[in-house]
Amino acid sequence: MNLEYVLRDCPVCGRSNRDPFFCETVTPFIEGKQVPVSVSVTVCDDCGLVYNDRAPSAASLKHVYRFLFRTPVGRSERHKKKNRSQIGFLAPHLAASGALALDVGSALDPFAAQLREMGHEAYELEPSKELVEKCAQGDPRVINAAIEDFDSPLRFDLIALREVFEHLSDPLAALDVVSRHLAPRGLAYIDVPDLARAHPCGAESYFNFLHLWHFTETSLANLVAKAGFAVVARRTDPVYESIRLLLQKDPGAARACFTPDGRARELIADYFALESRELALARGQLTELLSRGGKLVLWGAGFRTEALLRRCIPDLAGRVDCLIDSDRAKQGTDFCGKRIQPPAYCLTTDSPVVISSSPSSEEAIEKAMLDMGVAPGRIVKMFEHRVRRIA
Ligand SMILES: [Zn+2]
After folding, report:
1. Which domains does the chain have, with CATH numbers?
2. Could you give the CA distance from residue 37 to residue 28 in angstroms, rounded to a whole number?
3. What is the pTM of this model?
4. How far is the CA of 28 from the centre of ligand 1 (A)?
5. Of 42, 140, 165, 373, whose CB count within 10 A is highest?
6. Ligand 1 centroid vs 46 CA: distance in angstroms?
7. Does residue 108 contact residue 72 with C-beta atoms inside 8 Å?
């Protein structure tokens, strides 16, 4: 497929900055093929918002999402805990029961079900047609649409955009749709990764072609104010590295709130320093494993494995036997010069299996291996004990 690119300006103040601090090409699997995608991230000189100034167009991204996310997310215990932590933040602001909620870009995560258990009514909005058709089992409460295209007579007491807002091509247009679908005194809830708390997977995972906006609490507050929302409650969550804002419509918000974010460049410098330390730690861990002889198997054929092979152990790549991925579309193809094998491959070798996928899927992959009968001593986790916080 050919991706179409667009140039973006700062949505808060309209300024353009074509002087990116991060330019990379990544090669995700899209429709079973590795597609080169360029990533270009810049900082607005006026307001400090960090964003991808050149990125795939909205139409291209829509196409990509159809293929990237085909299975429900959030089945791990860590993810459910994260949901409970979010619900704990929201609960004091909701009625005790009977609130009408919408979970935007749900990926069929258990959040809606968790709200229903508390006596609320919850709908889900999921843009992937494949995912809804395959996994929603005709549940009328799961609506197949992107937030930008959503149009319903329903008016919600809560509209949640959890780990969604940073992916939207036009966040102001999305907030306009949210605004039209809120009941009087209804609340919008945004949860995004916090630029001030470096992502544990490193810059190449955080600054990627799907994360279009990289918010601090200040830059997010500036953007939502522009869309006519005032912040009712806020929390930065050190455990989940996220910013949580609870918002209410307020026509005066745009005039009342604008604070240039002067910390952006300093945070980015911290981020890359942290990443160097992380890569050194990962390199130490893998070198130690290889000092015992033999080869390694890496589980995960995505951004993180690519960064690991290219930037962390390029000289040791010959000691990586192959990659494992549960995505059938990837199996049998090559990624970064390595053959991708199905999970059962783990049983045909004695090599340690390093989970090089995301921290959020570490637990689920470990469980899958233990269920298959892989000895616990062969399973290597990369993220479990890392110190993540920089701010
Ligand atoms: Zn700006």
Report:
1. 5-68 (no CATH), 77-261 (3.40.50.150), 267-381 (3.40.50.720)
2. 8
3. 0.82
4. 29
5. 165
6. 5
7. yes
